[in-house]
Design a protein that fits this description.
Rossmann fold; 3 domains; 9 strands
């Protein structure tokens, strides 16, 4: 069995990623050409058959999202690519935009045809300025070649794409915050409902998909949804770009068939991660970015697919796998995760704004051996409160790594707790009284 495939990454090794002929030599624009002969409903049926799960992290079925938007009669409609790849340890969208930008743009053009959209937007994170420049060049190249712009391939269908640069805010990876930022507003999440399919960009019906999700569309249309499904897991088809980093020998981006490999194979197989660096011993892996769960040794035999990882209380998320060895303490690592979220919270809601700072303070106290049983109980209650009450996914997912680590490494937490006989017992701040505790973070 082949451990890697080249579905999305076909042509990534071409010397010139802006060569139309090179892209077509590996099957480029077959999907778009076929789509222009199909009805929107036929294309959506293929996406549904492919069981393509969104590749940005939430894994929402792309076909269902497309079907919902197709049923909305009013317009105009917009197509938006979420390229705000701010999840630490994630760099797969950068690979697509850098090496196979036409794949993203072809997928967006197919979506534009489905929804009768004339305009699409790619929202690129602020740190990807050179990538944004390359995308703009790719758009102009395709317009000159008749693959974008007016009267695409003589079909009468017109679709243009603009690149919008963010300013480096992690929260703009959330789709509604991204749309606000695209409109020139503060990048903060919106209340839902109404959903973006109904009231999205400029308050019009909008499709927002991740870069990798759009890059899957051309092959789904060209080869059929069933073919795409067969390459992956029965409950979520196709391939997935996985980002390996940390203490592995072979860090990088790998395109793998979903459901065919275990986490252990991804990390230790010589063709993939290659195992730990010389002298290092595996300790844990952080999956799906900072907002994802921690996997210990017991989780290594979980099959890498959305539904299979979920059974093991793990997740694919953004596709990041950050591997750590035993020189990295779990409390120190979690403190750095908490520092990241405390700095990236937009401040819109109290649970996230104050909760992240309070978690950070508790973790520092625990590391210093100054936390008592009260702090440990409060930490658990605070994490639950944030997950339930935060306004958007940032605050809801911020305690995920902490909660999973507590199950895997209970001794690391219990062993740091100051007992009553060791020092004077003091009452921990109540986790719902955020103000005072966050001010010291």
């Amino acid at each position: 069995m082949k451990k890697t495939l080249t579905l999305i990454t076909a042509g990534a090794d071409a010397p010139d990623p802006l060569s139309v002929s090179a892209y077509e030599s590996v099957g480029g624009f077959k999907g778009l050409k076929k789509a222009l002969t199909m009805t929107p409903a036929e294309i959506v049926r293929e996406v549904l058959a492919a069981k393509l799960l969104g590749r940005g992290g939430a894994a929402y079925p792309a076909g269902k999202k497309w079907e919902q938007l197709l049923k909305i009669p009013r317009g105009p409609k917009y197509v938006v690519a979420n390229a705000d790849e701010g999840e630490p340890g994630t760099f797969k969208d950068r690979l697509i935009m850098d090496k196979v930008p036409f794949g993203l743009l072809e997928g967006m053009a197919v979506a534009g045809h489905v929804f009768g959209a004339r305009n699409g937007y790619v929202y690129v994170r602020g740190e990807y300025r050179l990538i944004g420049k390359k995308l703009r060049a790719a758009i102009e190249t395709l317009k000159a070649a008749g693959r974008l712009g007016e009267n695409i391939l003589g079909s009468g269908f017109s679709f243009d794409v603009k690149v919008v640069s963010g300013a480096g805010a992690y929260v703009c990876g959330e789709n509604s915050a991204l749309l606000n930022s695209t409109e020139g507003k503060a990048g903060r999440p919106r209340i839902k409902p109404p959903h973006l399919a109904e009231v999205g960009l400029f308050l019009k019906p909008t499709l927002v998909n991740n870069v990798e999700t759009f890059a899957c569309v051309p092959s789904i249309v060209a080869e059929g949804g069933e073919r795409f499904l067969s390459l992956g897991h029965p409950e979520g088809g196709g391939t997935k770009l996985v980002c390996l980093s940390g203490r592995v020998k072979n860090p990088g981006v790998y395109e793998i068939p979903l459901g065919r490999l275990t986490l252990r194979e991804l990390i230790f197989d010589p063709e993939l991660g290659g195992g730990m660096r010389e002298g290092d011993v595996f300790n844990f892996a952080h999956l799906g970015g900072q907002s994802g769960p921690i996997a210990g040794i017991a989780g290594l035999d979980a099959v890498y697919a959305h539904s299979e990882l979920k059974k093991a209380s793990l997740a694919v998320g953004s596709g990041a796998i950050v591997v750590m060895d035993r020189s990295v303490g779990i409390l120190d690592y979690l403190r750095r995760v908490s520092e990241f979220f405390a700095g990236e919270s937009c401040g819109k809601c109290v649970p996230c704004r104050e909760g992240n700072g309070t978690i950070l303070r508790y973790l520092k106290t625990l590391e210093d051996g100054e936390a008592g049983p009260e702090e440990l109980r409060a930490l658990s209650l605070l994490a639950e409160t944030m997950a339930r009450a935060s306004f958007c996914g940032l605050g809801q997912a911020a305690p995920t790594a902490l909660e999973s680590a507590r199950k895997i490494f209970p001794e690391e937490f219990e062993g740091r707790v100051r007992r009553p006989e060791d020092a004077e017992v003091r009452e921990a701040p109540h986790p719902t009284k955020f103000g005072d505790s966050a001010a010291t973070a």
